[in-house]
Amino acid sequence: MKFNAPLSGVVVACHFVVTLVTATDASVTEGTPEVDIPLFGRVKGSVTISQWKKRTIYQFRGIPFARPPIGELRFKPPEAALPWNETLDATKFNRRCPTSSADSTDEPSDAFDTGPLEDCLHINVYTPQLGTNNASGFPVLFYIHGGSFRVGSARDFRPEFLVDRDVVLVVPQYRLGPLGFLSLQTEDIPGNVGLLDILLALHWVKDHIHLFGGDPSKVTILGQSAGGAAVTLLMVSPRVQEGLFTRVIAQSGTAFGTWVMDPDPYSDLKRGGRGTGGNHVVIQSEAVGEASMFLREDPGISLKEGRFVRVPLMGGITKHEGSFILGNIYDIILQTKKLTNDFDYLSHNLTRDTLDFGGIEDPTGLVVQTLTEKYFGHGELGNFSKMTPGLVDICGVSLLKASALRTVLENSRVQPSYLYSFNYDGQFTMFGYGEEVDYPFPGGVAHSDDLIYLFPHHDKNLSDAELAVANTMVDLWTNFAATGSPAPAAGVESWPPVSGERGPYLRIDRKSTVRENFLDEYVIAVTDGFQFSSSPASFRSFYTLFTIAISYVVHLLP
């Protein structure tokens, strides 16, 4: 049985350090680290302890990198923060960016809750060293949180795992929902300002991370879900200057998923009154002005034409990505319309509506026909419980897995690129994101489950076996940030870069293994532990047909 693990963390009790001066602009006195940031002011942080090495981590939370986006700055590109006179207390998290979620006002005890509600453009910095003890500084991990560009917070991602190694972790906040992504294609409301927030935070890192022991010439941008889309959007944005980042990790999301872009922001605005507008990235017209421009063309075109930042890339997915999406379909379509036992609907319309839900058009019906024939065995159509494994695979492939493969393959033509699938089934899950869910199916190794092993969470004590998986993942992620190659790592002797159309790739599990055919992950819910009338061999013979069909819809073919 799994237990839901909320996305909030816990600060581990720590030992204090007695007066250590590391540079002329950084000091630690009685456990209170302080850093002078030129042009801004002095900040005071706190300390915590890492997971394995029990090293001291200096943490600075809620440093403003932009002015509050209120008044005339609402919906506009961010402007750099103004300087402050007194020492800034960076010992607690600052406000979340406003969201449509009911928990957006649920502030933990270690958070400030004063100031304007929209004053949220802050950055959290976690480092094992201050100043310039290390002449070259440590590699920097710049993590962008997910949440469909609607929800999420930087405070949910704690340092005790990753900063156990020689890296600096930076987690920015950015505007969400309509405040960050509503677009009228005008200078007043251009859209994509949440992405411009992230870009300004990256420039802040470039200018100031050396004060926190980081190397500004060795910045890895990484993100999960919408954060994965954001890091790959940064790769194709004309606003990004060469050298701003040197490596990319995209977890369970890329810019080339059908759910990322809004092709018609005006229609989206009309839907906004019902709570669905302004949550997508838009391609911007010249009318928005140069200062607001983040994206000029479809990211898929940029990728195909080679107009993107060429750096080493690591990308991957979780085993049962689709369970999260199927949960949404179950809530929004099946339960709302009372269709869970409607044989005709389940047999003839559910697969089509599943594609529609993900924004995938199928004008010829070819994809629906192919998926229906190959994912559902005799006697399964019309029975939701029997269809569930196939639906989980369909959702996962069409919205996340296919675009992950495409992204890594395209980048592998110009830079070393690494592909993975996270398949470890531990005792905790992010399925439901801490909410009680009552689905007639489990989450499996769900969307976001990999984060449990990169960032510690409260109400969760990992077993020794789970900590071993976490140790492996931390090794892989931090090795890649340091050298551009994830292996060797604990439990993983080698992980070769992608060299063909299907791999190789690393399947991360209790015992991680290098495998050759990533398309095995396209049918994993059906073939791995679920009853299905067709044999695995029949699925393998279907790979080519399926790839062509799904590629036609989501533009996977080069």
Automatic annotation (TrEMBL):
PROSITE patterns: CARBOXYLESTERASE_B_1. GO terms for molecular function: carboxylic ester hydrolase activity. It is an enzyme of class 3 (hydrolase). Residues 1-23 form the signal peptide. It comes from the Eukaryota. Keywords: Glycoprotein, Hydrolase, Serine esterase, Signal. InterPro entries: AB_hydrolase_fold, CarbesteraseB, Carboxylesterase_B_AS. Residues 33-271, 293-518 form the Carboxylesterase type B domain. Its EC number is 3.1.1.-. Belongs to the type-B carboxylesterase/lipase family. This is Carboxylic ester hydrolase.
